[in-house]
Amino acid sequence: MLTRPEILQHAWVVPNLDAAIHHWHQTLGVGPFLVNRNLQISAPLHRGMPRAVAFSTAVAQSGSIQIELVEQHDDGPSAFRDTVPAGMTAFHHVAIIAQDFDAALRAYAGVDIAAEGRFGDIRFVYLDTSATLGAMLEILEDRPGIRAFFGAIRKAHDRWDGDPATLIREL
Q1: Distance (Å, whole) CA 150 – CA 135
Q2: What is the distance, to the nearest Å, from the Cα of residue 71 to the centroid of all Cα atoms in its chain?
Q3: pLDDT in tens for each of the 171 residues of the chain?
Q4: 103-to-95, 147, 152 alpha-carbon distances in Å
Q5: What sign does the CA torsion over 92, 63, 40, 164 have?
Q6: pTM of the model as a whole
């Protein structure tokens, strides 16, 4: 296992992204959320088999942790449906960034890969640690694009005045 990786993100699978965003804001004041609808993944695999998944995400900063909400739009198998049934809201994963992505994968040798692919030039993997941690572990490759995106989330949070009219920011 990796030595003391920094957990940057906690993620929930939700049945309705917009409703979940409003709930998180009304309940805990979290926001604003940067929303990526219908994300495009290159070379998507689920349990080693080619499988595209239709999904959208919303990410906000809350202190030192990001809150990610994920809505799957189709009924097919996925890392999300592996642990969260359709129509339910549940905690799904924690995420870390690995400076050496391949070394991180080697550190978790023996843990099943639930899903993997690329967001642009950024490799990612969901490791099925649900039996031992109660949730999956997402490892993101340390690339300028992911650092820029995470920086934009932090900047949006730091500059936000709390106005619900600007709670959802479409990307």
Answers
A1: 22
A2: 10
A3: 666 889 999 999 999 999 999 999 999 999 999 999 999 999 999 999 999 999 999 999 999 999 999 999 999 999 999 999 999 999 999 999 999 999 999 999 999 999 999 999 999 999 999 999 999 999 999 999 999 999 999 999 999 999 999 999 999
A4: 16, 19, 27
A5: positive
A6: 0.97
